[in-house]
Amino acid sequence: GQQVMQIPQYQHVQEGEDFTTYCNSSTTLSNIQWYKQRPGGHPVFLIQLVKSGEVKKQKRLTFQFGEAKKNSSLHITATQTTDVGTYFCGTGGGADGLTFGKGTHLIIQP
Amino acid sequence: NAGVTQTPKFQVLKTGQSMTLQCAQDMNHNSMYWYRQDPGMGLRLIYYSASEGTTDKGEVPNGYNVSRLNKREFSLRLESAAPSQTSVYFCASNRAGGANVLTFGAGSRLTVL
User: Fold this and answer.
1) Per-residue pLDDT averaged across B10-18, rounded?
2) Which of A51, A61, B70, B83 is the most buried (most CB within 10 A)?
3) For residues A10-29, b (16+ Cβ closer than 10 Å) or e, as one string?
4) Chain B residues inside the 8 Å CB shell of A31
5) Torsion, CA B9, CA B14, CA B17, CA B19, rounded to 10
6) Which of B96, B112, B110 is nearest to B33 (CA)?
7) What is the pLDDT of residue A2?
8) DSSP conformation letters of A37-101
9) What does pLDDT average to over chain B?
10) pLDDT tens profile B38-75
11) CB of A45 within 8 Å of any CB in chain B?
């Protein structure tokens, strides 16, 4: 199946700084989904991107799907302590489920 | 609306013991999944059930069995637990045929000594 590589594995930021995580594949992806997992919690769906070059926003979060549909990014503007957690990208999502990247752990220092 | 419910939340086993993790969803979803999460490894698919009556292996099925008891319930069984199976296990479900968004349960933390 399709595989995705996610970088960085860890990101430390000061509160108020921006944060970006990247999801890359060597093959064209049919879609990308992003999930957030709070410490001690479970993954929660954020958004799905399906179109080449698609950009979607949710308040301070901006999601992009590359023109070649081989990469995606999640950007958070002016991080807050509530943004702490692990962000996963995933692809696939047919009946055989999603393949996830290893996640980016966002650590915010007040 | 409870979503996806997993039991137990925590379990400690000794090597060689068996146990079953239970999962139930009340969203009338067709597809259900079991993932394991280990530090630095992300979420890896163990088994899935695309619809009632079917089950298939995922990326890491060895040492596990599953049963899709009915449309609501999907259980994961460890017949002879090993320390390598110490992990957090997540059950998820998916409506299928639409956006294919996964809804996850709260997780079951298993420790095998």
Assistant:
1) 97
2) A61
3) ebeeeeeeebebbbbbeeeb
4) 100
5) 0
6) B96
7) 73
8) E-TTS--EEEEEE-STT-EEEETTEEEEE-TTSSEEEEEESS--GGG-EEEEEEEEEETTEEEEP
9) 93
10) 988 899 999 999 888 899 999 999 999 999 989 999 99
11) yes
Average pLDDT over chain A, rounded to whole?
94
Which of B44, B99, B106 lies closest to A42 in CB terms? B106
Size of interface A-B (CB pairs under 8 A): 69
Q: What is the 3-state secondary structure (H, E, C) of chain B?
A: CCCEEEECCEEEECCCCCEEEEEEECCCCCEEEEEEEECCCEEEEEEEECCCCCCEECCCCCCEEEEECCCCEEEEEECCCCHHHCEEEEEEEECCCCCCCEEECCCEEEEEC
* Residue contact A97–B42, C-beta within 8 A: no
Q: Is the pLDDT of residue A22 over 70?
A: yes
In this prediction, residue A103 carries a pLDDT of 96
